[in-house]
Amino acid sequence: GAVVSQHPSRVICKSGTSVKIECRSLDFQATTMFWYRQFPKQSLMLMATSNEGSKATYEQGVEKDKFLINHASLTLSTLTVTSAHPEDSSFYICSARVGDTEQFFGPGTRLTVL
Amino acid sequence: AQSVTQLDSQVPVFEEAPVELRCNYSSSVSVYLFWYVQYPNQGLQLLLKYLSGSTLVKGINGFEAEFNKSQTSFHLRKPSVHISDTAEYFCAVSDDFGNEKLTFGTGTRLTIIP
Question: pLDDT (tens digit, 9 = 90+) per residue, A54-69?
Fold first, then answer.
């Protein structure tokens, strides 16, 4: 099946710094990628939909200036958490859409903000 | 808007016993239904999906699910579980209008007891 990678898998940063997370589709082109956030023992919450070459569409309640998304190519989308704070600590997961219905998920990035 | 309810947050099952993980959804439109599995510190892997046609869907690792429109359910079953099935299982729904956003349930932690 299609493979989606994320880098880094884990990151620890100081409060106030920015962190960039990469999501890559390795063996296919993805016009649409999604970014999710998962708190411990909870479900995935969609943060935004990323379309190649256009601005991301953010879900209600997600600050677009804090969570910057760039989808510069058909195989790469990046999520930058700006001025991170401890409450931003979470598991961030991306997915890439193949066809009309199926999403392939990356392995996730665990962000810890000290 | 859609919603997904997974009533069982944790399900312990003895090895080689059958298991059913419950999923109910709410939607005002027709839906696609999915089951995903998440192993520790990993992203999600698709187990199976219902798009149309036969209401009994077979997936990977011996899992199957049955779509019941009248009961708005999509329960996941396996006749005989293995230790390797220990994981978190998420039910998800999207509408069939081409809006590919997935709405996830809160997950069910399946623990296999040797």
Answer: 889 999 999 999 999 9
